[in-house]
Amino acid sequence: MLTRQELDALLLADDPAAAVRGALDDGRLDALIPEIRREMDVPQRTRYHHLSVLDHSLATMAAMPPRLDERLAALFHDIGKRATTTIKARTGEEQYIGHARAGADMTRRILTRIGYEPELVDRVVRWVARHMDLHMAAKDGHSERAQRKLLGRIGPDLEVLKRLQLADIDAMAPAIAAEKRREATGYHRLLER
């Protein structure tokens, strides 16, 4: 079984996706965080994704800077998807309404159980809970009032959430990622004004 310090080393490795995947493949991670395999090793059946929740999350994590809290948030940002999966009647496509909140609750339990400091746990949980805010705002939050409301809600987390959003987008299906990246960076520029 991995220790917390060994987990930290995996997350801060030059290739954290390969490091975490290796610890899953040999079973070392299962005792420490069984939720990764149970909740994340599932497909995503949407036009936005071509990877499983786990592979998407590993790719997102690998695109984040080597900061423990940011990589933890990226690793767990979609852990709530399995618990919130429903099927759209019209298209048969999966949807994950409420996955950010569900994932934040799971993340709090996991990180607290592992023994991370409360301040780090609070930060990571907040980022997981808010990781969809910029995605949703980029689609329809262009009024000045909507921007002010968003900035008031996410405040000092803006820069981390921008990095997390772009890493999340880069791990999406290639046909969607380019369009979503343009949408996101355009919205980021609006927020900077």
How would you sum up this structure, described in words?
The chain is mainly α. The protein contains twelve helices and two strands; from the N terminus they run H-H-H-H-H-H-E-E-H-H-H-H-H-H. A two-stranded antiparallel sheet has the order 1-2. The mean pLDDT is 94.
Topology:
Elements: H1 4-11, H2 16-25, H3 34-40, H4 53-62, H5 68-76, H6 81-84, E1 86-87, E2 94-95, H7 99-114, H8 118-130, H9 133-140, H10 144-154, H11 158-170, H12 174-192
Antiparallel strand pairs: 1-2
Helix content: 55-70%
Number of strands: 2
Strands across the major sheet, in which order? 1-2
Name the helix and strand elements from N-terminus to C-terminus, one letter apiece.
Answer: HHHHHHEEHHHHHH
Number of helices: 12
In short:
This protein has 193 residues and is mostly helical. The protein is 66% helix and 2% strand.
